[in-house]
Write a structure and sequence with these properties.
This protein has two domains: 131 residues, D-Maltodextrin-Binding Protein, domain 2 (3-Layer(aba) Sandwich); 146 residues, D-Maltodextrin-Binding Protein, domain 2, CATH 3.40.190.10. The protein is 36% helix and 20% strand. β12 and β13 form a beta hairpin. α9 crosses α10. It is α+β, with helices and mostly antiparallel strands and 297 residues long. Strands 1, 2, 3, 4, 5 and 8 form a six-stranded mixed sheet that branches. Strands 14-9-15 form a three-stranded antiparallel sheet.
């Protein structure tokens, strides 16, 4: 059920289509997943873009689901129509690049593959490089690192509000402490905040970026987690287990803990919500946006 979370989302420029011109403006249509983090992020970007480019109108058309979006894009490419740009998992790049259904971004958008290697993160050329050309613009995958899955019943029992977003990490940890439960010997029996899921590295990386740090050394072409920003982020997640003790390595992994009522909150991919509604209809989960690592940001 779980989606492949290691890829970043990719925006593709379609070779077959030219943007239409209406009322003196160039119109560009974008298809994205009909999911708030995708839609909100796209709309925010589109607003800034159109303010700087008043002669271009960008139309965002959210699509109902990731599988539906890919299927619709596949059919559109085969028929020679569809959106000018679209957002899709990076694993689809070769399917459309090889037959020439999409056009490369070098050299018009990116000067060269070498320039990308020297200036951007490795996903740009590891997943988007074919015939020494770059075929997509990589953007962070917002669902992977945007929020915290919460057990609504647990929060209600503790008298904690179901916020739209946590104000800061202090509030998140405060919630976690109030939700954690321990036995008579002090052993954790219900985690206040679980951090044991395969997508957890994305949260770690996102908190490095939140501080303005980098996790990829372009000169050496290696990951670098020895920066001050990386150490700060790692300390935060270390403290969840060994300082605040709101999670424990003796507890089940995140998904198991959530569905067994052994975790009240968790760093978890939001696509878990529709899955849980079908598989665990008696459980009541909700999604709260995670706080920025830097207060006030």
């Amino acid at each position: 059920m779980k989606l492949n979370r290691f890829v970043i989302l990719l925006v593709f420029f379609i070779l077959m289509f030219m943007s239409s011109v209406a009322l003196g403006k160039t119109q560009i249509t974008i298809w994205c997943l009909a999911f708030d983090p995708h839609v909100n992020g796209s709309n925010a970007t589109i607003k800034v873009f159109m303010e700087k480019n008043p002669d271009i109108e960008v139309i965002l058309e959210p699509q109902p689901g990731q599988a539906d979006l890919v299927a619709k894009m596949r059919a559109a490419l085969a028929a020679g129509n569809g959106a000018e740009l679209f957002i899709t998992p990076g694993t689809t790049i070769l399917e459309w690049a090889v037959p020439g259904s999409i056009q490369p971004l070098t050299p018009e958008v990116f000067p060269s593959t070498d320039w990308v290697k020297q200036n951007l993160d490795p996903e740009y050329y590891l997943q988007c490089n074919l015939n020494d050309q770059i075929w997509a613009v990589g953007i962070p995958d917002p669902p992977g690192d945007t929020g915290i899955l919460v057990n609504v019943d647990h929060l209600n029992e503790a008298g904690l509000a179901i916020e739209k977003a946590f104000v800061d990490t202090d509030q998140l940890i405060d919630y976690a402490k109030k939700l954690s439960q321990y036995d008579d010997e002090g052993n954790l029996v219900r985690a206040g905040l679980s951090f044991q899921e395969s997508n957890d590295p994305m949260y770690f990386i996102s908190y490095i970026a939140d501080q303005g740090g980098k996790f990829w050394d372009n000169d050496k072409q290696v990951f670098n987690f020895q920066t001050p920003e990386a150490k700060n982020a790692l300390q935060f997640f270390y403290d969840i287990f060994f300082t605040h003790k709101v999670d424990s390595t003796n507890m089940p992994t995140t998904m198991d803990a959530l569905v067994q009522n052994l975790a009240s909150m968790a760093f978890m991919w939001p696509e878990f919500l529709p899955f849980a509604k079908i598989t665990y209809p008696d459980m009541n989960f909700q999604f709260i946006m995670k706080p920025g690592f830097v207060k006030g940001k």
